[in-house]
Design a protein that fits this description.
Chain A is mainly β and 111 residues long. Chain A is built from no helices and eleven strands. Chain A is globular. With 115 residues, chain B is mostly beta strands. The termini of chain B are far apart. The chains are: A mainly beta (111), B mainly beta (115). The interface between A and B is medium-sized, with 27 and 29 residues.
Chain lengths: 111, 115
């Protein structure tokens, strides 16, 4: 089964600087990863994804990097804005059409 | 507007009193799923459904039931709720579920408290 781990429960960054959120996974068989963003009192919303045929995927201020040898992915937000303050989850599909989510990283962007 | 709708948003109940949380999607998605979010544990999958009349257990199915009689609806049933089921619940749907590049669309959550 796929396990995804986010080892940093929280992160604080100054507005305009780069935010880097990290995620590790255990099973190399699955090659599709997603990041979700969650504001309080709302459901998670899809942010960006990456498959193993790429090592980078960019969408505006958001870039996800995949390091397959290290089984590690990261989300970069540049420049960070106060509206980016939210909880970020990495996720990956696993066996039997299940999705596994990390425990989340709470990002605070300080104005 | 494409959306996943959960009801109710907030629910306080007592141990043992059966309850149902409804979930409906208007995107004609094949795949639907229920998650619970607990502090320090992230989102954990309870049940999922690949299509009508097809449901499967996720990681934490104990104490829950689901049904998928119609494509758009996927209710979560707690036959005899217990305090350890106090949690934030999310319903989600997608075109094809896991193992594909089809992101999940989530509802806004149901905050359940069992006393």
């Amino acid at each position: 089964d796929q396990q995804v781990k986010q080892n940093s429960p929280s992160l604080s960054v100054q507005e305009g600087r780069i935010s880097i959120l990290n995620c590790d996974y255990t099973n190399s068989m699955f090659d599709y990863f997603l990041w979700y963003k969650k504001y309080p009192a709302e459901g998670p919303t899809f942010l960006i994804s990456i498959s193993s045929i790429k090592d980078k995927n960019e969408d505006g201020r958001f870039t996800v990097f995949l390091n397959k040898s290290a089984k590690h992915l990261s989300l970069h937000i540049v420049p960070s804005q106060p509206g980016d303050s939210a909880v970020y989850f990495c996720a990956s599909p696993s066996t039997g059409n299940q999705f596994y989510f990390g425990t989340g990283t709470s990002l605070t962007v300080i104005p | 507007e494409a959306q996943v709708t959960q009801n109710p948003r907030y629910l306080i109940t007592v141990t043992g009193k059966k309850l149902t949380v409804t979930c409906s999607q208007n995107m004609n998605h094949e795949y639907m799923s229920w998650y619970r979010q607990d502090p320090g544990l992230g989102l954990r999958q309870i049940y999922y459904s690949m299509n009508v009349e097809v449901t499967d257990k996720g990681d934490v199915p104990e104490g829950y039931k689901v049904s998928r009689k119609e494509k758009r609806n996927f209710p979560l049933i707690l036959e005899s709720p217990s305090p350890n089921q106090t949690s934030l619940y999310f319903c989600a749907s997608s075109n094809y579920g896991g193992l594909t590049n089809s992101p999940l669309h989530f509802g806004n959550g149901t905050r359940l408290t069992v006393t």
